[in-house]
Every structure is written in structure tokens, then in C-alpha cells.
């Protein structure tokens, strides 16, 4: 019997098995066209129909209001670190950034190239564990061009339990690692953007959901590839888009709809996270250094009591079919990324392995 393999990589992450099988079956002949979808013109009628369906499926899943545009762009999440200030501000403006980890810090560093940026809040420690600031601790400038934050940080494993209220200031969210994991009130945001390689599809694609009143104000020096107005005008096809990634994203959207949408996905994601955190909390051999109120449901970092055992843990877990559990170099230890495509059985297999490892080496 072939050993089951579960991929806990933080990104590019695993895709649903059924989506991969469908893509495999359609690789050489898509919809009877006699060619692969990756070989087709993005302006052909079949491809444009597929692209339109993908957008509509995403709109359905997220209940995106009609006054928001959905863009499928190049550059992943990092591309939008520059795209946001170039489309939403002028050089004399200021913007607020809520820092929660490495990705929000990366967005801040890029934003500072284009305008004055102010830190609106930072994590702190509660009983030695990382905690995110509450709404009451945020210092938001009512005249800011926008307020930026990252709802879920993959490296530190922290997640906001609330959507910050910035008043009339447009809220911009980097949802690369949490989009489509649970229902969301899109109307609370000015812009939502996400690199695809965690919960949407393969790397290279980014999805941007932007309120219409924030479109058409790009700076003159904005590269055309980052101009939201041009992207809207040309239906995300100002130049050749990442066609195969867009196709795979569309398959993922249909998979989500067939599995009950985001309400059902949220239930599964909560069950997966609870299973793993419950085991860690019940063990003296493993620990998680994030406050209970802001633990990520997508990325679970954990440390062993003796870090000299890290290499042995990684060696044996990989041999057991549990892939990519090494923590980010900044925080060390282990990290299990359990995005939408990870089944509950994968998390249970990890917990079983961790229990067995503790018995042998604890």
C-alpha cells in the first residue's frame, strides 16, 4: 500500500487532490480543444469564458458586493506591496501600517519607498507569548491615505480575530494566507489582495478585490502592470495573464463551492486547528508561543522541548510522509501549514506522529 503523503508547506502549498486530478486529465486536451489550456490564447472565447466563470465563482464564495472589482494579476502578494501605495496615495500622503509579523513589515518597507508610513500598532507579549494589539490600542490617523494590515502571518503563526475599524480610512488587507478560509464581510475593506499560492492555486498569480471608488487614481509613474484602472479596463488582460494559474484557481473555486463554500470550510479549518493546538497544549514536549486569542488557524508554529531533536523530528516526519514541517529560519522549530486543501486526516496523522515521537524521545 502506498504511504499517504501530507504536504504542510507554507507556500507554495498543497492543492486539493481532486483539482490536481482534473488538471492532470485535462493537461493535453482541455474541453475538447485538442490543446492544453496553457497553450491557448487568453483572448480566445473558451478561455475568456473560463476566466469569467472563475471570477463569478469567487464573487459567489466571498459574497463580493457589486461595487468591487476583482482582478487577476501578476506579481503575487509582494507585487501589491508596491501596487497599493501607487494606486491609493500621492507622495505627500501618509499611510498607517499595523505590524503583526514579517509580511506586514515587508509591506511597510515597500510602502516607505512611495510615501510617509506610520506604525499604527505592534505585537506585544502576554505571559511570554506573542499577542496582537486590540482595536483600542490602534493609533489610526483619520487623514491617512489607507490603513494596511495582514490578517494572518504565516511565519509567526498569528491571526487577527477582528477586522480593524479605521473609520473613513480605506482598510487594505494582505490576505494571502487566509483568504477563502472562512466567511468575510468584504464591504469592510477598501482593498483585499492575496498571493495565490496558499489557498487559491499555484504561485505567480495574485487576486485583488478593490472598491470602485479607489480605482483610477494611480500615480503617473505607476508601472502599467500595477495600475488597477488599466487592469479593470482590460479585464485583467492588459498583457498576457498567468493563464494556467488562473485556470487552476478557477478549479479550486469550484471545489470550494462543491464542498459547501466558506461556511463549511471554516468548520473544517477550526476542527483542524483545534486538533493540533489541543495536542500541543496537552504536551510538555511541544509548545506554541502565541497567545490563545490570536493563534492562526492556517499556520501553526511549534517548538520541541529540546531543539537538538529538531533534525531528528524532521528526518522521521519526512520519512512518514509528513512534508515541509521545518519552521521559518526567523523563528525556528516547526511549522504546520494547514490551509483549505489539508484534510483533517492529515492533521490527525501529524498528531499521531508527534505523540509517537514524544514517547520515543521525550
TrEMBL record:
Matches recorded under Pfam families: Aminotran_5 (PF00266)
Residues modified to N6-(pyridoxal phosphate)lysine: 198
Binding locations of pyridoxal 5'-phosphate: 77-78, 103, 154, 174, 197, 239-240
Locations listed in the record: Cytoplasm
Textual note on the cofactor: Binds 1 pyridoxal phosphate per subunit.
Entry keywords, A to Z: Amino-acid biosynthesis, Aminotransferase, Cytoplasm, Pyridoxal phosphate, Pyridoxine biosynthesis, Serine biosynthesis, Transferase
All residue ranges annotated as the Aminotransferase class V domain in the record: 5-350
Job description of the protein: Catalyzes the reversible conversion of 3-phosphohydroxypyruvate to phosphoserine and of 3-hydroxy-2-oxo-4-phosphonooxybutanoate to phosphohydroxythreonine.
Family that this chain belongs to: Belongs to the class-V pyridoxal-phosphate-dependent aminotransferase family. SerC subfamily.
Name of the molecule in the record: Phosphoserine aminotransferase
Amino acid at each position: 500500500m502506498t504511504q499517504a503523503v501530507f504536504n504542510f508547506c507554507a507556500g507554495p502549498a498543497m492543492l486539493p487532490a481532486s483539482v490536481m486530478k482534473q488538471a492532470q486529465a485535462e493537461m493535453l486536451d482541455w474541453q475538447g480543444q485538442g490543446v492544453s489550456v496553457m497553450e491557448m490564447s487568453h483572448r480566445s472565447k473558451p478561455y475568456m469564458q473560463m476566466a469569467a466563470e472563475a471570477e463569478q465563482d469567487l464573487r459567489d464564495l466571498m459574497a463580493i458586493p457589486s461595487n468591487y472589482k476583482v482582478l487577476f494579476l501578476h506579481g503575487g502578494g509582494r507585487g501589491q506591496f508596491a501596487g497599493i501605495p501607487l494606486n491609493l496615495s500621492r507622495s505627500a500622503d501618509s499611510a498607517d501600517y499595523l505590524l503583526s509579523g514579517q509580511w506586514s513589515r515587508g509591506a511597510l518597507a515597500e510602502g516607505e519607498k512611495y510615501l510617509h508610513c506610520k506604525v499604527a500598532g505592534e505585537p506585544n507579549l502576554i505571559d511570554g507569548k506573542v499577542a496582537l494589539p486590540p482595536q483600542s490600542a490602534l493609533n489610526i490617523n483619520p487623514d491617512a491615505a489607507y490603513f494596511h494590515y495582514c490578517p494572518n502571518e504565516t511565519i509567526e503563526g498569528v491571526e487577527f480575530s477582528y477586522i480593524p475599524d479605521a473609520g473613513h480610512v480605506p482598510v487594505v488587507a494582505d490576505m494571502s494566507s487566509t483568504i477563502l478560509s472562512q466567511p468575510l464581510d468584504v464591504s469592510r475593506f477598501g482593498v483585499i489582495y492575496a498571493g495565490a499560492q496558499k489557498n487559491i492555486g499555484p504561485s505567480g498569480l495574485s487576486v485583488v478585490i478593490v472598491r470602485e471608488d479607489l480605482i483610477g487614481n494611480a500615480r503617473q509613474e505607476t508601472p502599467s502592470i500595477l495600475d488597477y484602472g488599466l487592469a479593470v479596463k482590460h479585464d485583467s488582460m492588459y498583457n498576457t495573464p498567468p493563464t494556467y494559474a488562473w485556470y487552476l484557481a478557477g478549479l479550486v473555486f469550484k471545489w470550494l463551492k462543491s464542498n459547501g463554500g466558506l461556511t463549511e470550510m471554516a468548520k473544517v479549518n477550526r476542527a483542524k486547528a483545534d486538533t493540533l493546538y489541543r495536542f500541543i497544549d496537552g504536551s510538555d514536549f511541544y509548545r506554541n508561543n502565541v497567545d490563545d486569542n490570536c493563534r492562526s488557524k492556517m499556520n501553526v508554529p511549534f517548538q520541541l522541548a529540546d531543539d537538538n531533536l529538531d533534525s531528528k523530528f524532521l528526518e522521521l516526519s519526512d520519512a512518514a510522509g509528513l512534508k515541509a514541517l521545518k519552521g521559518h529560519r526567523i523563528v525556528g522549530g516547526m511549522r504546520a501549514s494547514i490551509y483549505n486543501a489539508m484534510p483533517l486526516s492529515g492533521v490527525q496523522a501529524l498528531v499521531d506522529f508527534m505523540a509517537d515521537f514524544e514517547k520515543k524521545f521525550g
